[in-house]
Amino acid sequence: MPRSARLRWSTASELLRLVHAEPGIARTAACERLALSSGAAAELVERLRGARLLAEHRAGRGGRGRPTTSLGAHPRGPLTAVADLGAGGWRVLLGDLGGAVAEVAAGSYGDRYPAEFLPEVAAAVDAAARGEPGRVRAVVAAVAGAVSGTRLLQFSTRGWHEANLGVLAGGTAAVPGVPLLVGNDATLGGIAEARGGAARGAGAALHLLVAVGVGGALLVGGRPVTGARGAGGEYGHLPFGDPALACPCGARGCWDLLVDGRALARYRGDPEPADPLAYGRDVIGAVRSGTAPAGDRRAVETAARALGAGVAGLVNLHDPDAVTVAGLAPGLRAAAPEAFAAAYRAGLMAFHRADPPPVADAVHGTDGPVRGALGLGFDEITGPSALARWAALPHT
Ligand SMILES: [Zn+2]
């Protein structure tokens, strides 16, 4: 891609990313934010409408009684397909630049391994792309497990190891040349919180998801820092735990084993639960409702302390402006607020204690990973080179 072509699309890229972050933003507000003159803005918006990248809608009257318009997705604009591989089953969704999302297919895993059901998910992505000819410009796999590049490394709730996710885009005839991006649910949830959730506006944000184990991401300017192969953020496998305990990841003493449903079962003297997430929700729910026996309250307090101490260690490590927590963590904090707060404070280095970063519950909940996946997809689609390629496509 020649430099001149990229430059021609670079302001367009900024405007489209702003519209994706704030769908329906008034044209006047978007121009101010990008320091565009009204003449340059009119020309740019017209070019993006013509290229099927943007639509304008009347939005009543702006300042000084002038009519104003809001900016949103073009009805025939580019789409991101999300293959959501959740703990309980898979879904395929299509999302547009304006944040509208529609589920187009769903299924269960049964007793199958990834190599057996991934072709089914790939066929659903392919069918979705054929249904919207030429529009799907990125495929994002949102995975409830550890990933590296386009490989699934571990899906701990199901005991899956090593599978190639490349089949989700590479082999589909309907989306030739469309990139496949892969993120785990904790990283993608963090993107959603940093861009449009509880950590919005934070320069550096730490996001943690307690599900089966703990995953997360450090986000700088809304972008996750995930290492060379996207496998970073496995916070649960830091040795904050008991060195006597072996973790399914292969390491010992992992933090994972102190804070999730498996930990609660151990503290209560139960065997390891088949579904640690549901088990954790049940125990925490009973403690919050006040119906649980004292032993259960102590178990939840022990997990909340381990969570608070670990979060403090990560604050010492990353120095974030804000921390967001999701999954079981909001419930753990609500069930044992003093235990969490005391351990968080005690674990902070002294200079952090005067003004510790706030810990907030995630606002996106279970739809966070899909929101974050769309963010990742539109980062790709709205890059200057990708926009130049889109504009050169023969649109029918
Ligand atoms: Zn581990």
List keywords for this structure.
single chain, 396 residues, alpha/beta, Arc Repressor Mutant, subunit A, Nucleotidyltransferase, domain 5, 3 domains, five-stranded mixed β-sheet, 42% helix, globular, binds zinc ion, Sugar kinase of the NBD/HSP70 family, may contain an N-terminal HTH domain
Beta strand count: 15
Backbone CA Rg: 23 Å
Helix and strand pattern: HHHHEEEEEHEEEEEHEEEHHHHEHHHEHH
Mean pLDDT: 91
Q: What is the subunit organization of this protein?
A: single chain
Cofactors and ligands? zinc ion
Query: Going across the major beta sheet, what is the strand order?
Result: 5-4-3-6-10
The name of the CATH architecture of the largest domain is: 2-Layer Sandwich
**Number of H- or I-type helical stretches:** 15
Major β-sheet profile: 5 strands, mixed
Q: What's the structural domain tally?
A: 3
Query: Which range does the strand content fall in?
Result: 15-25%
CATH third-tier fold name of the largest domain? Nucleotidyltransferase, domain 5
Q: What's the overall geometry?
A: globular
Task: Provide the low-confidence segments as ranges.
Answer: none
Report the end-to-end length measured between terminal Cα atoms: 24 Å
Helical content, roughly?
Answer: 40-55%
By CATH reckoning, the class of the largest domain would read Alpha Beta
GO molecular function, one term: kinase activity
Keywords: Kinase, Transferase
Organism: Nocardiopsis flavescens
Region (Disordered): 58-77
